[in-house]
Amino acid sequence: MAISFCKEKKVFKLDTEQTSYIFCVSDNDFIEHLYYGKRINDVDVKSISNRQIYSFGAKEQESSRDFSIGTVLHELSVASCGDLRIPSVIIDFNGESVSNRFRYRAHKVYKGRKAINGLPYSRDNGSCETLQVELENDANTVRILLYYTVYERENVICRYVELVNKTLPCIYLEKAASVCIDFYGCDYDLITLEGMYLCERSKIQRTPLRKGFQGNASIVGASSHHTNPFFALCSKNADENLGETYGFNIVYSGNFKNEIEVDRLCDTRVVCGINDVGFRWKLRRGERFETPEVVMTFSDEGVGGMSRNMHDHIRNNIIERRYAFCKRPIVINSWEATYFDVTENKLLSLAKSAKECGVDTVVLDDGWFRKNDKSGLGDFFVDKEKFPSGLKKLSEDIHSLGLNFGIWLEPEMAAIESEFYKNHERNILSTESKPLVYRNQFLIDLTLDENVEKIKNRISAELADVKIEYIKWDCNRYLNEASSKNSPQGEVFHRQMLGVYKLLDGIKKNFPDAMIETCSGGGGRFDPGMLYYSPQIWASDNTDPFARIYIEYGTSLAYPKSTVSCHFSEGVCTSGRRSSYDFRYIVASFGPFGYELDLSKYPKEDLEKFKEYSLKYRENEKIMLEGDLYRLISPESDEFCSYIEVSKDKTRALFSFIEINTTGHTESTVVRLKGLAADKLYKNESTGQILTGAALMNVGIRVGDLFKEKGGSGRQILFSAQSDNIENKKEY
Ligand code: DGJ
Question: Is 519 a pocket residue for ligand 1 (Cβ < 6 Å)?
């Protein structure tokens, strides 16, 4: 049983393999948080107390100095209930004055979990368990349900909240966060993934918590290039290997807010979920609102342990099972080869060269229904001048080469010269009759179901007879003007997101054999919400390998490698810097691999080299899809970046070493490997040397002794466990 309830003390204990999460029903029926961290024994539950002093906080009885709403640790905090810290829920009772004190009414525990209406969420894996705690305000007019689903193996607890207007004619939710959790003390560092277009998630920020408010948020209608819904709190001494680390992420792709407040008593409140900026949701009598889900994990194996929990959870429970551990297409994507200038002939010649490189899927990127960014979006009619034989024939020709066919879509947008835009001005999200311009395109108002249907049907009709195995789903504009003629202002951001998810669902149903890779002007929507629909996401438009090292490293804090789509490209598109093929390959093999350059211009020897890369990627792909990732050297060292991925059974490990700057001591630098089995013998497949896991992890090994070839800015080797064991190995 992952979830237990101590009747005597009214304490809930949620256990995963390594963690415990504990809260109770306090004397006056508030829900009081007690503990989250390393797993503790059930026998201790009765004696846990984390109650803070009274300290100028409101209390319910004058006589009691023990319990103050303003200082105890909470699991939910409704504004104006007497708590003095940031609330997780704000309700406007339509101007009426109604009690905001929510008290425990009932709870139930069940196997599995419920779906969250219209939103992505962690899937029912057959063994998860859910605790549902029901609270009501004193007037019994509003009900709040707190959901906790426990994923034992992954050490993850997922939380969301449901708010129900039971009896009032109308109330407004002004804030509806998914998680409120109070930590005793504030001795933590906060880690967030900041960035911008072309360097998404590459600026890892680690700062000590300070008194007052801190956190990160997005208000652009997408999880954004600038930051990410993921964050971590870790003890000050936490490094990659040791130290307490809490990880949080939101299964949502729109506006989010992670608030961390260190209060006057030096306790730490965490509130996360949907952003309340621009949010005001009307609930009529009987209506309910379900928040997005937040994934929480804890590890005492440092930031690395936290990441591995997150990786396991995303792969096991968020990504669709049929893709999670299956080999991914090796694509050639037309974008950086042709940009808008793509034609039938160019794509076919790209396909022919790609075939020689071990590619298996040809992706027709932007340009198949337009010549530039002013038209086509919203209408999605193939450009007959560029593709005179049509897409059905093109796909057949590509299939006859033994390759699969993929296509680019940007279904959420209408271009300025499109028919959709001309005829449906009311159906564009904008505050003015002349909306703000951004890449000549506008957001279709997907808060209206009719538009979701219209776009789904148009795309499905255009591609009905085309055999498609892969869809690249792009989104190149933020929600700059959250105003709709069809939905109330305070509901636009969230309703638009629900519309996007509905459209994703609809397109998936109509193209059941096509795997979707999402993208948003590069990596502007890299979040667990998107991963529910697409097992991999285009990480960035920046394919310069030097820049990608940082993007990949930052992304790996929260997301498994199998989700980070990476392409081997000219590598000069943004910086003008050039780099070797091997270096570009090593960096691009960080995740699902592909090519993004005009292969038809390359000589045969190069195509053969590329084929070697495709084969090498395939050989190592299984470890990438299933293994545990250990970050060995951070690129922030300014010298090297290094990883090792180890298969779950610890029989194979892939070691990657990248030199960022030329140093005089590269070959003599000692690297200590991680994650191997101490008592297994491992063969270095490059040098043939056999060493124990214990030696490789503790003594370490010089870079120069790891590889047969010396030098090279990107190097990779495989270690394979030998059937021999240490006892049989006599020679010293
Ligand atoms: C932005 C994407 O990130 C690129 O890969 C490409 O698909 C372009 N959009 C096409 O407009």
Answer: yes
At 123-147, the pLDDT tens digits run 999 999 999 999 999 999 999 999 9
| Residues in Cβ contact with 462 at an 8 Å cutoff, skipping those fewer than 6 apart | 380, 381, 382, 391
> Using one digit for the tens of pLDDT, what is the confidence trace for 407-457?
999 999 999 999 999 877 789 998 877 788 889 999 999 999 999 999 999
Q: Is the CB of 517 under 6 A from ligand 1?
A: no
CATH topology of domain 632-728: Immunoglobulin-like (2.60.40)
Please confirm, yes or no, whether 474 is among the known catalytic residues: yes
Looking at residue 402, the DSSP 8-state letter turns out to be: T
- The domain locations on the chain are 3-318, 326-623, 632-728
Query: H or E element: which one contains 272?
Result: strand 268-274
d(CA 605, CA 60): 80
Q: For residue 541, give the ligand 1 atom closest to its CA.
A: 3
Looking at 83, 267, 383, 541, which residue is catalytic?
541
From the CA of 522, how far away is ligand 1's center (Å)? Answer: 7
Could you report the per-residue pLDDT of 583-639, keeping only the tens digit for each? 999 999 999 999 999 999 999 999 999 999 999 999 999 999 999 999 999 999 889
The architecture CATH gives domain 326-623: Alpha-Beta Barrel (3.20)
CATH architecture for segment(s) 3-318: Distorted Sandwich (2.70)
Q: Does 383 qualify as catalytic in the annotation?
A: no
Position 276 confidence tier, pLDDT thresholds 50, 70, 90: very high
How far is residue 33's CA from residue 22's CA, in Å, rounded to a whole number? 7
